[in-house]
């Protein structure tokens, strides 16, 4: 095991910034900053419900997941062309690279956009072109995970998957997002079985607002390889034991949990408890344009609130690579870069 040297508390934010990391839980539509949203609205002749960027940002106060999803959905109305999807993903990848994200697995959905009259092909082609460009421009590896919207039917999710198959080569996996409570994972058993048979990697949001039972069924019915959020697992000791034993990663999003009132304050966030219990937890930004920060702000604010150490920082960055779907050779290379950053930091 890599030996982490102690780091003074005032130097920790710099180490958190510098350390190479993977981001495994972010929705590209949730990275659409108000400035770009207004620019796209103007380019596409779409009316905005807010006067300006400040008025829009001022509306980003949420009571729960649903109140966020309503505003988030309204924001996607400005996306009309392949170039819009390219510009949005390119902006995220530039911002992530500045935070020393070296690998990103990016969530997107197509059902929102096909609901606005766009084609699945257009969405995937624009996002994928940005992933390819970012590798050359920023040296960041990036891949796409198509999320089904769980408030819609399984039949619609099956249609969504079929419509994406012509672009299969541009997709890494499938996930499950949107309103959780009342839409348990088992509602999507057949579509996940089909995606699995097609060789897609599988993830699902579970245990954000929903109960531990949703995490169990994401694992046992959908057979997902990672759980997105999963912070409610701590209420179920048998589930905690299962997650630790099988090394099922949780992609935790502390600022999202704070903004959506999943936890009342960052000081009460359970990230430290998850790590102490031996869970493969990672830190991610979820919807950074809406929740007040990209990945490094999630790290620095959470570390300050929970008084976490350089050892935790190393563990979280290591976990991000271990939990990623990259091949073993590239994984090893990223972990060597991580080790070198910690060795040379003083
Ligand atoms: N879609 C975008 N962000 C989400 C979240 N935090 N939970 C569920 N669905 C989402
Ligand atoms: Zn999410």
List the helices and strands and how they pair.
Elements: H1 12-18, E1 21-27, H2 34-44, H3 53-58, H4 65-75, H5 82-98, E2 101-108, H6 111-114, H7 120-138, E3 141-149, H8 154-164, E4 173-177, H9 189-197, E5 201-206, H10 212-222, E6 226-229, H11 237-245, E7 250-252, H12 254-259, H13 271-276, E8 281-283, H14 288-291, H15 295-306, H16 310-322, H17 328-344
Parallel strand pairs: 1-2, 2-3, 3-4, 4-5, 5-6, 6-7, 7-8
Helix pairs in contact: 1-15, 5-7, 8-9, 16-17
The structure holds adenine and zinc ion.
| Intertermini distance | 20 Å
The hetero molecules present are:
adenine, zinc ion
CATH superfamily: Metal-dependent hydrolases
Element pattern in H and E: HEHHHHEHHEHEHEHEHEHHEHHHH
pLDDT < 50 runs, ≥5 residues: none
Helix content: 40-55%
> If you compute it from the alpha carbons, what radius of gyration comes out, rounded to the nearest whole angstrom?
19 Å
Structural class: alpha/beta
Number of domains: 1
- What's the CATH architecture name? Alpha-Beta Barrel
Short recap of the structure:
By secondary structure, the protein is α/β, with parallel strands linked by helices.
Task: Walk me through what this model shows.
- The protein is of the alpha/beta class and 346 residues long.
- It has an eight-stranded parallel sheet with strand order 1-2-3-4-5-6-7-8.
- It contains 17 helices and eight strands.
- The protein has one domain: Alpha-Beta Barrel (TIM Barrel), CATH 3.20.20.
- It has helices spanning 12-18, 34-44, 53-58, 65-75, 82-98, 111-114, 120-138, 154-164, 189-197, 212-222, 237-245, 254-259, 271-276, 288-291, 295-306, 310-322, 328-344; strands at 21-27, 101-108, 141-149, 173-177, 201-206, 226-229, 250-252, 281-283.
- The relative contact order is 0.15.
- It starts with 11 loop residues before the first helix and ends with a helix.
- Strand 5 (201-206), helix 10 and strand 6 (226-229) form a beta-alpha-beta unit.
- The structure holds adenine and zinc ion.
- Zinc ion binds next to strand 1.
